[in-house]
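Hi team,

Below is the intake form for RNI-like superfamily protein from Citrus sinensis. Please confirm the fields before the structure is written into the shared record.

FORM ID: S-0412
PROTEIN: RNI-like superfamily protein
ORGANISM: Citrus sinensis
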Amino acid sequence: MVKAPSLISLAALAVKRELLLGDDVIPYVCELPADLFDILLTYLPPLALQKLQTKMDGDDCGSPDYCFENGRKHGRYGNFNTVWKKLFKTRWSGVTDQIEPVDWQQRYWEAHVQGCLDEAAELVVLPSFRGLISDINISDTILNYIGYEQQMNHLACDYSKLSYHCQQFGHYARCLRLQNALCVEETCVQALCKLLIQNSETLASLEFLHCKLSPSFVEGICRSLCSKRKRIHKIENLSIDISSFIENCPSSVVVELVSFLSSGRSLCSLKLRHCHLDRDFGRMVFSSLLEASSSLSILDLSGNSIGGWLSKYDRSGPLFSLGAGKSLQSLRLLNLRGNNLCKADARDLGSALVHIPNLEILDISDNTIEDDGIRSLIPYFVQASERCNPLVELYLENCELSGRGVSQLLDTLSTLRRPPTSLSIADNNLGSKNRGGVETAKFLSKLMSLAPDLVEVNAGYNLMPLESLTIICSALKVAKGHLQRLDLTGNNWELQPSHVSMLSEFRHNGLPILILPTLQALDVPYDDEP
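The structure came back. Fields below:
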């Protein structure tokens, strides 16, 4: 037998419908006792909740006392925030933020706008698409999520259009991700620039993914984000990923980007990854950062061919003697992976790194810097270990280093007061693609003794014989360092139960230090059933 609805639930549903269709009921809602008011909130879909909260926050109400009851206002971050959080978790159950939002209303509508833009991007690429992106109809699935009902069709607002959602909820977006389909000049640029202008004071992160960017598009985006009076933008995180600049980045694009980087006082993360950029563009970025006043902490130029980008700078000249720009002073992560750098670039980089005093993570993997290149960087590693904020992570994968060059590096690191706690030298010519057999175990033994502060090593797929395990375990006992994880997967070992007991003593915070997936088979009870 179906349970009859309660009087409160029926009343709440009636109020919900009235809120979706108009504002007349709001003054009466504000007079509800606190307990009934809180119950009502749990019945409201996003559109109705948004309308009620906007009125209660004083927007368009004509009086800041619009919803005070006995001197108490229903707070913006009180029960409203709890309901917004529930709505967000219900709609995007798989999304987890690294830092839990304070304002769940803002987080909800930000995710909603992004969902609308992603859906529009899928429609724009269809051969049947004609017209402007702002006129795209939002799907019933998305409209149902926010509480749209068919009886709302007669209202002046056209809830079905993308333009409505961008105009009404776009100002909640702090982060936007734009795909190539949304960056087509003929159909999208005008609407996109309008959205960015609307959010220029609040937008913090902007990401372009798989885009082909024309000069006029770049100019429009940069100017939309900058204040007309001061020519300063408030973007904190800018990412252009797996994209390209049409016309091979002409001078007009360079001028706009230089101006944009120089005017970004809030910029803290700049990622230009896999964008087919050359060394001239790399020089432009570096020059802009020397002159900029932002507090940049992340610079990622990976996947571009910028070899020679630092070759024209006089390392004893005024730029470096002044300690470089504020942006380089604050830099903590530098990613130059796969940038077609050679040993000469490593030498130039070593001179420049001295003037980046707070760098903690350096990745120069997939560059042919060879042994000479790593030797030219050793003076920097020595100097970095004496800083207040030493280098913490160093990635030198696939740099065509030999065993001799790596040994020289390790000998140096072992003498440092505070060496890096994470070092990756994978895919170098230490054996055959690092498949050095028992010599790998001997190398690991030396590594653990010389670098006791290392916390993680990946030594998988080295074709080590089984006796290597005894060498490694002996080294772990003697070293007594801080190693938390040693990956030895991919070695074809037939482990015996005796090995399990030998390995059991090597644990960190209850987890095994030695990662051997084949051990899982030993934990499964033997089944002799046919």
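SUMMARY LINE: Confidence is low (pLDDT under 50) at residues 59-78, 519-530.

Thanks, M.
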